[in-house]
Design goal:
Rossmann fold; 13 strands
Length: 287
């Protein structure tokens, strides 16, 4: 009999409802700050509610990690179901303290076996690792097999995304006010890459349509047409543009796995609405 173990991701992960149910993926809560109010993403704040609240000019947004009590609640709830092993995937430690809190909480629970892995990623990068482990578990893989796979994939999921505005990056302290003003005046749309836990711009294009086209060019330069891919198209409050990227991906590559999902309030708080991106890995990377 295969090991029974839970797969847990944090609130930055990017999953469709169907994928979440298919692989029985659990969540650690992350919080979103809007002005002086704090909400728990996807618990008492939906994506639609988040974007409605931040629409007013000058609204400050931020995020915060779960505390040890919240992590303990999640672990205890899973343990009460009879599952004594848990694999926890968190956002890159450079971007959040979630890994540290989740790991410290796990160490305080010697009665269960909990492996916390720094995904070195975020959003769909975390999610693609989770589904890879879930698929392996479904095929009879052990808990230690899942841990080994998660560690092997950490930091290896490319993510490219186009940000519609620099305003929210400015509000969150990610760029200076002068840089954001310059970008706004020229309608610059940055193309961002997440690589091994770090987010950095790799290009800047004048319009959103051209930026999305450039993102596709970069992906095409890196991945041969027809490659067998596992992929996630993500967006922040821009489903139509995401649909176009998703259709392109599925036409150009052999998508063994693909879903499209709203990235959620935690990513939206840092990057703002209008982000569209792709996360992927080649199937032969995890063979």
């Amino acid at each position: 009999m295969a090991d029974r173990f839970a797969i847990v991701v944090d609130g930055t992960a990017c999953l469709s409802n169907e994928v979440e149910r298919e692989f029985d993926i659990r969540w650690l809560p992350l919080h979103v700050d809007i002005g002086k109010e704090t909400f728990t993403a996807n618990v008492d704040l939906s994506a639609a509610e988040f974007y409605a609240k931040i629409a007013a000019p000058g609204v400050l947004t931020g995020t915060s990690q779960p505390n040890m009590g919240e992590c303990r609640d999640v672990y205890d709830r899973i343990a009460r179901e009879g599952t004594r092993k848990m694999l926890v995937l968190t956002v890159a430690s450079e971007l959040s303290g979630t890994y540290s809190v989740a790991a410290t909480t796990a160490q305080a629970m010697p009665e269960v076996e909990i492996e916390v892995i720094d995904s070195r990623s975020l959003a769909g990068g975390i999610s693609l690792i989770a589904t890879a482990v879930g698929r392996q578990r479904r095929a009879g893989g052990s808990f230690q097999d899942g841990v080994a796979l998660g560690k092997r994939m950490a930091g290896k999921i490319p993510i490219l995304a186009v940000a519609d505005t620099l305003e929210y990056l400015k509000r969150s302290g990610r760029v200076s006010g002068a840089q954001a003003l310059f970008g706004s005046m020229l309608q610059v749309k940055p193309i961002l890459e997440v690589a091994d836990g770090k987010v950095h711009p790799i290009d800047r294009v004048r319009t959103r349509d051209k930026a999305v086209a450039r993102m596709k060019e970069i992906i095409s330069e890196r991945v041969p047409e027809g490659t067998r891919l596992h992929a996630c198209t993500l967006h922040t409050n821009d489903p139509e543009r995401a649909r176009g990227v998703a259709e392109w991906v599925q036409e150009r590559f052999h998508c063994v796995e693909h879903w499209t999902a709203e990235a959620g309030p935690v990513i939206g708080a840092r990057a703002g609405p209008g982000v569209v991106g792709l996360c992927w890995y080649r199937e032969d990377q995890v063979a």
